[in-house]
Amino acid sequence: MAKSLAFGPFRIDGGAGILFRGDEPTPLGQRAVALLALLAERTGRVVSKQALIEAAWPGQAVEDSNLTVQIAAVRRMLEDMAGGGCWIETLPRHGYRYVGPEVAIDGLDPGADQAILTLPGKPSIAVLPFSNLSGDPEQDYFADGIVDDIITGLARINWLFVIARNSSFTYKGRAVDVKQVGRELCVRYVLEGSVRRAGDNVRVTGQMIDTATGAHVWAERFDRASADIFALQDEIAQAAVGAIPPSLRRAEIERVRRKRPDSLDAYDLVLRAQQDVDSGMPGRVTQALALLERAIELDPTYALAHGNAAMCHHCLFLRAGWREADRAASIRYARLAMLHGQDDAAALTLAGFSIGMDGHDRKAAFTALEAALALSPSSALTYILGSVVLGWGGEAEAAIEWSERGMRLSPFDSWAFAAFDAQAMSHLLRGRYDDACRAAYRSVQANPAHSITYVQLAAALAKLGRMEEARAAAMRVRELHPTFRYTRQFAAVNCAPALAQCLGDALHAAGLPR
After folding, report:
1. Does an H or E element contain 5, and which?
2. What letter would DSSP give residue 11?
3. Least enclosed by CB within 10 Å: which of 282, 341, 446, 477?
4. What mean pLDDT, rounded, does the chain reach?
5. In whole angstroms, how far apart are CA 392 and each of 24, 207, 357, 503?
6. What is the full DSSP assignment across 104-172?
7. Which CATH class is domain 378-514?
8. How far is residue 478's CA from residue 102's CA, in Å, rounded to a whole number?
9. At what angle do helices 49-56 and 30-41 cross, to 10 degrees?
10. What's residue 134's pLDDT?
11. Which residue in 209, 104, 202 sits closest to 146, CA to CA?
12. What is the pLDDT of residues 64-103, one digit of tens each?
């Protein structure tokens, strides 16, 4: 709970657990105050029932009816004292949301920069890259793949906040102090370990550390044959989850298990292709496609291989000539990813993005993205790619919210540029040109090799009347993407008409071809 939260005539003293109206304390109980504080801290966002229960009854198993009673008490208090009974919305099957007056946190004005990370209101963990002790650098991908599956398994647990791979992997190859990692990523626990692969045998060691105290919470060593690698990954993830206070939830631990590709060879191929897929560069994704197509030949139902193939064709469509064959292939692979990946959040995320961007079916896209979040609530990539779909669709405020959620889950994400792009175009649409310019600069900084980052920057600068800088950004667009035409870009992604008008006017002024 924050030290102080102020909204309307109310103030919450988090340390004392008291709700004040003006200078007078109210009779609201501490559990109800804890619920109100969490909702107010996450103003405008849906807070799940499980997160609320963790805030008010940490480490206890309680019925949903207890939560319902406390929420009702909060509403009565707000209604009686300020006519604010409607400040808390119920979203059936999802949770609750605070929609009342703006909230100032720890004495800050509403809307002030609150970028400093705070511990989430539930157990939080970062899984660091495991050291490859095999003596063969070519085996790095294998060690990374083990960690990927542990992160994915942990992220499927609703009550656990998991830092995304792209942030935790910024520590790869570095000697780190886990207390420092805890401060930088704002997590309570860190899982680290090593992998030694020799012939057909694998030894994996893992240890979980409390970042506040440096104490070891759990440590284990696993010796297995390579053929058992998937069961081994599940075993490590289960053991890690079981060690996290405040509770041991066997039902949730079982959710770590998920369907595996039938072929270890196909799995290896997807691991090898992943970095090239994520690059977003036409030459590299073409190389990745060769590996992914081999993986699909070995396992035609491998959803993540289909999802990655969809992303490759999406990249080729937008950045290598707007060929209709690439758009059609993106949609085809996305549909196969959804068909075969109903329990795979990553596959659903990639599929939803391609269906939304290339298939122009945003309803179907968000069906897939929301299904991904139901499976993996800590999926930063789902929020980030969803923010891009929302941004081009002209849903500015939702795009900003989704992008910010994604960045909180993965502060150092390699896809950060996409989140900032979504913010830039959304601020631009709302006439907030300074904010758009800041977001665009952050996008360029995150990925200076991607032309779309300079598109947003050129538009924002033009809107601010900084024409010399806008023309320089436009020149960079043409260097990175010589065939760029903004009307073709807008048509390709089904850009919302209002955004197309706003962006188009600015890009034309900056000197980019129509």
Report:
1. strand 4-7
2. E
3. 282
4. 84
5. 48, 43, 9, 11
6. EETTPPTTS---S----SS-EEEEPPPEE-SS-GGGHHHHHHHHHHHHHHHHT-TT-EE--HHHHGGGT
7. mainly alpha
8. 43
9. 130
10. 83
11. 202
12. 888 888 998 899 889 888 888 888 988 877 788 888 888 8
Give the torsion sign (CA, 63, 65, 69, 71): positive
What one-letter code names the amino acid at 48? S
For residues 276 and 289, the answer to whether their CB atoms sit within 8 Å is no
d(CA 514, CA 496): 17
CATH of 4-105, one of 3.40.50.150, 3.30.450.20, 3.10.290.10, 1.10.10.10: 1.10.10.10
Q: Give me the count of residues in the chain.
A: 514
Measured in degrees and rounded to the nearest 5, phi and psi for residue 111 equal 85, -5
- Confidence tier at 238 by pLDDT (50, 70, 90): low
**Single-letter amino acid code for the residue at 359:** G
Average pLDDT over residues 470-477: 95
Q: Are strands 24-25 and 18-21 parallel, antiparallel or unpaired?
A: antiparallel
- As a whole number of angstroms, the distance between CA 189 and CA 179 comes to 9
Q: For domain 124-254, give the CATH number.
A: 3.40.50.10610
Domain 260-373 matches domain 378-514 at the CATH topology level:
yes
Under 8 Å between Cβ of 210 and 125: no
Place of tokens 């997160």: 51
The two tokens of residue 114 are: 């609150």
Q: Which CATH class is domain 260-373?
A: mainly alpha
Domain ranges of the chain: 4-105, 124-254, 260-373, 378-514
How far from 258 is each of 2, 13, 152, 262, 312, CA to CA, in Å? 36, 43, 10, 12, 25
Those residues whose C-beta lies under 8 Å from the C-beta of residue 267, and which sit 6 or more positions away, are: 145, 260, 261, 295
303 with 344: CB under 8 angstroms? yes
Bridge partners (DSSP) listed for residue 12: 5, 19
pLDDT of residue 239: 61
Summarised one tens digit per residue, pLDDT across range 214-227 is 877 778 888 887 77
